[in-house]
Amino acid sequence: MIRSELVAAVTEMNPHLSQRDVERVVSTIFDSISEALAEGRRVELRGFGAFSTRGRDPRTGRNPRTGEKVAVDAKRVPYFKAGKELRERLNK
């Protein structure tokens, strides 16, 4: 499901809300999650899962085209852990 499909589904479930309002709500939620992760905080949506970041150590990588060694800096990457309810729904 892509963002526009999510907006359409929520709009369909809530006919009293306009599509523009739903787009604004979805954008606000995603922006809030992104900002929290950028600040190093954890975001937990009960029953769905938790978003957090994990650190990756610096390493030496390789350019796949030339085989040349390349230094890759340390970085943080997003991480998602599914909640119990979501896992149970997937494995019915």
What is the number of E strands? 5
Averaged pLDDT, please? Answer: 95
SSE string, helix = H, strand = E? Answer: HHEEEEEH
What value does the Rg take, in angstroms? 19 Å
Low-confidence segments? none
Strand content: 25-35%
The structure class reads: alpha+beta
Characterise the protein shown here:
The chain has 92 residues and is α+β, with helices and mostly antiparallel strands. Helices cover 41% and strands 29% of the residues. It contains three helices and five strands, in the order ααβββββα. The strands form two sheets. A three-stranded antiparallel beta sheet has the order 1-2-5. The chain has a two-stranded antiparallel ribbon with strand order 3-4. A hairpin with a 3-residue loop joins strand 1 and strand 2. The chain is elongated and about 55 Å long. The mean pLDDT is 95.
Question: What is this entry, summarized?
Answer:
This protein has helices at 3-13, 19-38, 84-90; strands spanning 43-45, 49-56, 59-62, 69-72, 75-82. With 92 residues, the protein is of the alpha+beta class.
